[in-house]
Amino acid sequence: VPVSLADDQAVFVSVNDITARREAEQALVQAKDVAESAARAKDEFLAVMSHELRTPLNSIMGLSEALLEEVYGPLTERQQRSLRMIAAGGGRLSEIVSDVLDLSRLEAGAIELA
After folding, report:
1. What residues have CB less than 8 Å from 59, skipping those under 6 apart?
2. Burial group, residue 20, by CB count within 10 angstroms (0-12, 13-18, 19+)
3. What is the CATH number of the domain that holds 6?
């Protein structure tokens, strides 16, 4: 900006160093990218985990139910007790898997609390 001083002319210059601000902005962008990448990795992991846990769990639950119904022949009382424990444990594990997945969806904003 030119400034006139009597007969002489001068130039007034103002400089602000924004290096720190630019570096902070870049750091925030990088942190955001890292966080988004981590969120995607978590989502992918939970999807795979869900499938990998539910598939064998469904087999365990289905086969223990079939055995309890004596589809493959009669069972002793001890075998029935053991199968009921297997079915109960499988049911609890299935609930835990569902709870973990629901929590993940809740954190991601995919579901809302009623």
Report:
1. none
2. exposed
3. 1.10.287
Residue 114 lies in a domain: no
The DSSP symbol for 69 reads T
* pTM (2 d.p.): 0.61
Q: What pLDDT digit, counting tens, does each position of 71-99 carry?
A: 999 999 999 999 999 999 999 999 998 88
Q: How far apart are CA 62 and CA 77, in angstroms?
A: 20
CB atoms within 10 A of CB 64: 20
For residue 61, give its domain range.
2-108
Q: What is the average pLDDT score of the chain?
A: 86
Cα torsion angle, 83, 86, 89, 95, sign: negative
Segment 25-46 shows an average pLDDT of 91
